[in-house]
Design brief:
Radius of gyration: 28 Å
Largest sheet: 3 strands, antiparallel
Helix content: 25-40%
């Protein structure tokens, strides 16, 4: 069952309540009878270890699919190549749109 956090708008007291998903949300502070608002809590669920990131998997058809190291380097090179292509395209479009530049 999940743990829900609430905060009283009147006395600012925070409380944690274990509730079923089907249980109605609390609306009244048990201490001062003020209005409660439900808080968004951090999760305690953490993904650790390998296998959780795109770079942990080799591309299909890669020769280094057993180690994964070659695939990581290849991804980095591909990303760097895409960035340089975009930068050169941006320079070309600026030059073409600049006043006084020859038009084709």
């Amino acid at each position: 069952m999940p743990i829900y956090e609430y905060e009283c708008e009147k006395c600012k007291k925070r409380l944690e309540v274990v509730q079923k998903f089907s249980d109605p949300l609390l609306t009244e502070c048990p201490d001062c009878k003020g209005k409660l608002k439900k808080l968004v809590s951090n999760t305690s669920f953490v993904l650790k270890g390998s296998g959780w990131y795109v770079t942990d998997y080799a591309r299909k058809g890669s020769s280094d699919s057993s180690s994964g190291k070659g695939a990581k380097k290849k991804h980095a090179k591909d990303a760097a190549g895409e960035k340089s292509e975009k930068a050169s395209e941006a320079k070309e479009s600026k030059a073409a749109s600049a006043p006084g530049s020859p038009s084709s």
